[in-house]
Amino acid sequence: MNDRLFSFAGGDSGEWAVLQQTTLVGPPLENVTHVAVRPAGLNVDTSKWVLKGATSNDRYVERSEKDALLAVQQGLGRSPTHWAALIPIRKNAAWWGMTQDERRAIFEAQSRHIAIGMKYLPAISRKLHHCRDLSESEPFDFLTWFEFAPEHEPDFNDMLRELRASPEWTYVDREMDIRLRRS
3-state secondary structure string, 12-33? Predict the structure, then answer.
């Protein structure tokens, strides 16, 4: 089994209870009460939807930024972080038509994506899952999984507001915001 491949299965059971499921742009996913996070390949047949993603190497990040992130970010699954958010995102063809350096310029030089995220560490942990290369049928390009303590939800909301107001978000053509609590 590949330990980099994950399934996020929405349905009536799972370790994460859905508090709120919001469609920000694009078609919605079917509403569910729970999300199960599993290594890909495990049975999720009773789910209403399954989103698949793979963890990968860091992209759009320079060495100094990666070192700064590693110095302060903390891992998932910490005991006080029993709230989570699953943010599936798809970017449009214009984004993918650009070169890597053009996307990097929008991602950080214009949008300050890494700098914004750094302001909220270590309270908010995240893991990015790439979907785009798994299959043509994957409905999203990225699945970002965040964990935080309930008292940090206002900070999380502030972070999302900043990111969504950036030039990078003009390339987003589908986005969901699924808030969860560990069951």
Answer: CCCCEEEEEEEEEECCCCCCCC
